[in-house]
Structure formats: C-alpha cells, structure tokens
Amino acid sequence: MRTRSLTGTGTGARARLVAAAAALGLLLTGCSGGDGESSDGRITLRFQSLAWQDESVQANKELVKEWNAAHPDVRVEYVQGSWDSVHDQLLTSFEGGEAPDIIHDASDDLADFAYGGYLADLDGLLPDRLKRDIPERSWETTEFGDGVYGVPFLQEPRVLIANKKILEASDVRIPTVGKPWTWAEFRAATKELTAGEGRKPGAGQAEYGVAWPLKDPVSATLNLSRSTGGRLFHRGADDKVTIHYTEADAEVPAVIHDQVNSDGSASGATLGMGGSDTLPGFFGGKYAMVPLGFSYRQQIIQQAPKGFEWTVLPAPAGADGATQGVSPQTLSVSEDTPHKKEAVAFIDFLLQPENMVRLARGDWMLPTGTAALADPSLHTAKHGWGTGAALARELLPAPAQSVRGYPEWKDKVATPALQEYYSGAIDRAELKKRLEKDGNLVLARYQR
Amino acid sequence: MSLRTSRPARAGQYLALLCYLVFLAFPFLWLISTAFKPARELGSLHPTWIPDSPTLENFRQAFDEQPLLRAAGNSLTVALSAALIAVVIATPMAYVMARQRSRLATAATGWVVVSQAFPFVLVIIPLFLVLKNLHLINSLLGLIMVYVVWSLPFALWMLVGYVRAVPAELEEAAAVDGAGRLRTLVSVTAPLLAPGIVATAMFAFITAWNEFFFALVLLKSPEKQTLPVILTHFLGAEGVADLGPLAAAAFLATIPSLVIFAIIQRRITGGMLAGAVKT
After folding, report:
1. Is the ipTM of this complex over 0.85?
2. Do B216 and A85 touch (CB under 8 A)?
3. B238 to chain A: which residues are within 8 Å by CB?
C-alpha cells in the first residue's frame, strides 16, 4: 500500500502552516497561469508520474509516447515526480496555480486535496467503460463527499513471503488462497517454525517464525485488521467520525504483541525496521516469513542469494475472511486545468486493460480493473503473481481512507502507541485508552 | 605550567581523534562499499566492507536510468552561482555590521538569527508565487536567487564573526602608516578575511548543493532538475529503495563537494595569517 507517511509529510500542523503561507503568498502577489494551449490550438497536458522502478518508468513513458503519436492535437508531457515529499510539492503547486494537469498519487493522500478543491470531480467525465471496469470497492477509495477525485488503478495486498525450504520441511499446514491460515493458526505456525533466539534451528525452523517490519505500524495494523472486522473509525449520524477500539480491532495487534512478547516467535528487533531492512535476515534464514507488500517481490528477486527459494502466501484470515484494506495508487485531474476532458481521455487511454497490465507488471502490483486483472500473465504461479491476483477480490478501502485528521492521529497518537504496545512497554488497556481518548481529541479538531 | 602532555595522554588524544574520524568516515565508506556491491550482496545477512564481487553495474544502471551528468551540471551551476553571489553580497554587509556598532547593526543581527527559524514550508508558497510572477519558476536563475536569499543570513552571521576576529588595531596601524581606506581593506583586511570568505562560500555551496525541497517544487522540467531531486527517483513509497544505483549515484554526488573542499581547504589554512605581517 502506498501510504501517506511516505508519500507526503502533510500533518495537520503542516497543512495549517502551508495554508497560512498560501494566504500570505496570495496577499503578496496576484495569480496568473497559462492554459496549456499553444497558438496553433494544440493542447499540452503535464502528467506527473510517481513511477520509480525502471520497468514502470519505461512503461509510463512508452504509453505517453504512444498517446502522443496517436493524438497530435493533445500532447502529453511526462514529468517525473517523487514519492518523497509529493504531498507538499503538490500542495505548493496547487496554491501557486502550477499543478500538473494529470496527477499520480495514492488514494490516502487525496482527502485534503479533494476537500480543498484542488482536484476535479471526475464524476460525469469518466467513460462508462472505465467506471464499469473498476469495482465499486476500489472507487470508494477516491470518493470524498459526493465527488470522485481520482481513478484507482494499482493496488497491492500485504502477503506473507515465506522461506519455501523451511516451510516445506516443517509440519505446519501450508496455507492457500482458498484456505488461508486463521490468525490463531498463524500464531501457532510461527511458534512451530521458531527455534528461538540464539538456538540452532532444526529442520523446518528458523530463529524466528516471523519478522514483522513495523516501522510504520499503523497502516499495516489497520489494513490487516479488516480481516477480523476491525473498523476503528466510526461515522455517526451527524457525519462525525469517532474512534472505538473494539475486540475486532484488537485481535490482530494482540497476535503480533503475543508473538513478540509471549511466544518469542517474532523478532522484537524488526519492529522498528522497514520492509527492506528485514530482507537480509530473511535471506539468511533467520526468519521463516516476512509480511510485506506484494511489490516487494521485485526486491526479493533482485537481492535473494542464488538458490534461495521463496513463496508467496496469503495473509491470515479472520471472521471477515481474507479481506484487508488498501490505498490504491490513483490518477487525478487538477481542478485548475481547462482541459479536463482531454486529461480524462488520456487517463482512459492509460488505463485500457492491456495498458493497465503493463503498468501493473512494471510496478509489481495488481491492477484494479477487472479486465486487466483477468490477464493470464497475472495468474502464473511464478513469483507469486497468481496468489496476489486471487487476493485482489478481497481488497477493501483502508479504514482511514476519508477521515480528516488521520495523518495527525497516525503520527502523534497511533504510531507511538502501537510501537509501545508491540514492544511490550504498554498493555492493551493503555493502547485502547490512547487510541480512543487522545485520538478523538485530534479528530475533533478537524470536525468542528 | 608546562604545555607538554605525557605520552599516554597524547596516545589517548590520538585514539579519540581516530574514533572521531572513523565515526565521520563510516557513512561515506559504507556508501562506497554499497555502490560497488552486486544486488545479491546488498541482501546479505553478513555484510562485508569489501564487496566479494565488486561491480560497476550499479553505476551503469544509475546512469542508464537517470540523467546524472546533466543533473550534476545543473547542481554545480546553481551551487557555485549561489555561493559566489552570497559571498559578494555578504562580505561588505558583514564588514559594516562588525565594525559599526549601532542599533541598526544589532537589529540586523537579531533579524539574521530569527530568519533562520523559518521553516521551509512556511516560505515556499509565497516564494513560489513571487517567482511565478517574475517568470522564474522552472528556471535555474530563480533557484539561484532562492538559494542566495536562503544562505545569506547565515553567511552574514559567519562573516561578521570572521571580521570581528581581525583586530581593528591592524587597520589602525595601516592607517598610521599612511594607507588609505581602500588600501587598508585590500592589503590588510581582505587577506586576513580570505579564509572566512572561503569557508562561507563553502557553506553556501554545500547548502545549495544538498538542497532538495525548493528544487523539487520550483523546477518542473526534467532537464533542469538538480542532483538531490534526481536521487529521489531511486526511492519508492514506504522507504523502498533501489539501493545499489542509489548508493552509486549518491557517491558520485559527493565527489564535487570533496574536490572543492580539497582545493579550498589549503586556501583556508594557508591564508590564516597572510597579511598580518607588514612587508
């Protein structure tokens, strides 16, 4: 999942600072802007892409080239963006009237822009083909109020990447998409796969059964908790959102907490790590499994030592099945562009099923479009594509998708609270208290 | 009291210095090591200082994927120009502020300190709008202006200190010897100030060379982007990185600063007391 924490640093405080700066800026200067139309009537649209992997950048550039060859009157200019600071960069561009016409971002970064009036409402502009092709649950990630402010096109579930040799040599049942582990089975399996710190692992064992990379624990926790019915954010009749940490919300965090603190089947050292940091230990046989985003497969292919065998397993399922939350990557149109129709036409071209497949393969992610998802190349056993593709129908919007104030709640309340809980510094009651009491105070400020 | 130190004490001092040097050098040495490692060694549980199978593949990939040379050229243009302009503006200002003790000079010094507290994010939008009206968005000239303004307060602050360190008595002695104001400045003050000016220029250069956010926001055309912006193209979301090419590109990005430091540091030390001796 492409989450806000890394796609931007736009906390509430920062947003207010930027808003104040914008007001000051507008007082200092007037506004002017071009309309992207040359004297011969040719339109030029700027498309800011956040593609970063070589294959993905190539796919995007090729598609832009193909579009330009077929549409001499509407030229698209490829602009390379960066996930780092994209939120602040876009906000500045919007305020300065210099935003790209077509914008690549993540759905959980769109709320502020959509409510701020920076993004065009695409409802009514989108072709029926595209509307029908992308499932309603994916559209929900880009719907704010009554409008649709982006087209969700790529997504990735969290999966378990497992050391195949260890797993097959053990006595644990190997889960499938049809019959994933329950969270209880998962906990039992990781115990079974654990030799213990400093002990020499026997056949079918690693030092630890699992390594949870939880440097950014909030999105992982919330999204996986959808499988147990966790919602955390509850919208009342007055449309205000409040936080309730229920039993359903507590189930997944409790498993992780117990694996680290009671069973010793999860390494405590990886709690502060990012996904990439756990890979050397995984390759070295220290961990039997690592829960990671689906796109991490590319890094594994690049970095795994020769002969290292790995497999992709579905994440554990709960009372609600194998569902989990995701924040898809999106394409939006700037409200300021006078060429919305042309921008949407380009998005429609970019997201034709065969093109969506090219983009998905380039990013090692899954397309949201049902036609693209049916492409045979995404259903091969190789590199776990088939497992991921089969999980796509279980993906739901991330719980905090449209909650204003979520970034501040995440940074100031949830991240430290969950980190302390997972490391054993606080108990479940304290976690609940902090998430609810402190969290609701934060959200209330955004909902006055 | 003797200034001599005992042998164990001196050994201790050297040891402390060595530790400090190792501490300083570690990230850079690790960067070099990573830049030459093949992808499979990057994922090793037991990383080594010297790559088992050193490769230039990361450099090839970095150059293939991103226009590093062009970006380095842009960074160099922007950083050198910003450093030069900042020093040219700051030096006379610093001289006045250091030598003329007045309320205005005190207020100016206070403002310099306060201006350092402004966060980037607060100034970026007004700045963006001003530059837009001047048609300086997406222009290296616009970025140079931003960097000059951004580095000027601290450059001024540094230079005021250097000017104060030059004894006013030397200037008075020169005046007694019959030197005019300009001659005194050129022959006495300037040589003594040279190391400070060079150090300040280095500061302005490094600030501009490393700066990311202004460059990201202000430069839109790929052909105008600077190195720090290009380096982020090796990073994905959630901290995922194309580590090998990133390290290779980052290593290359440090070379101009190192070369300039190597050339200039001799000037800094060599010029320390030049001009203090009457010829």
Report:
1. no
2. yes
3. 1-3, 5-6, 216, 274-275, 293
